[in-house]
Amino acid sequence: MRHLEKREGIIVSEYEGASPPFVLRLAGAYTAFWLWMAYAPHHRSDWLLENLLVFACAGLLAGTYRRLPLTAASYVQLALFLSLHAYGAGISYGATPLDPWLQAVFGGGRLPYDRLVHLAYGLLLACPVAEVLVRTLGLRPAAARVGAVLLVLATGAFYELIEMWVAGAVAPELGTLFIGTQGDPWDTQRDMELELYGASAAVLASACLTRFPRRPRLSAG
């Protein structure tokens, strides 16, 4: 459905927001998968810590849908990332059934699923973030892509701090399990590196294959 959005009565933008039936079906599919992963998680306390920001994210998306409904592609990317996280939180990022296969494919001694999710954070969130920047701030597509990469890096770094603070304040005994360094002293830096690669690849692919919504135009009304 087509929408017009005004910003302070001057800037107007057109965009194709995802329809309510589509959003409800997608939310229902994700919720069913999340409940499956939540039924008997590997470690209940760690699962709860891993899901604190998921609850906040779900509330934010629900609360902004009427005012700023994202495109269907953005909601699908967000749902895919949240599903990857739900699987890791439920099964345990420390050792998922996918890790042996991922190790066989990519090599390395560290269990790689956690790294895959960090790569997906950049790959799947950069374009939705760029869309929001175009539509709310009126940025040109190129500036929105750069801003999206920077925001992915900034939020990824902030999440590493949140992990440390939450683990220390809520459950210090779960610190190692929750943070999931797996003995790698460069774990935080490598996670952020993958987020950078994922976000950069996403915006470059978007620039080549798709067009962002048109830059907001001036209106007298």
Describe, in plain words, how this protein is organized in 3D.
The structure is a single chain. This protein is mainly alpha-helical and 221 residues long. 68% of the residues lie in helices and 6% in strands. The chain has helices at 20-39, 44-64, 72-91, 99-106, 113-137, 141-169, 175-179, 187-209; strands at residues 2-7, 11-16, 217-218. The chain has a 3-stranded antiparallel β-sheet with strand order 1-2-3, with no helix packed on it. The radius of gyration is 19 Å and the shape is globular.
Which key phrases capture this entry?
single chain; 221 residues; mainly alpha; three-stranded antiparallel beta sheet; globular; disordered N terminus; disordered C terminus
Work out the helix count. Answer: 8
Backbone structural class:
mainly alpha
Radius of gyration: 19 Å
Strand order across the biggest sheet? 1-2-3
Helix and strand run:
EEHHHHHHHHE
Oligomer: single chain
Total beta strands = 3
Q: What portion of the residues fall into strands of 2 or more residues? A: 5-15%
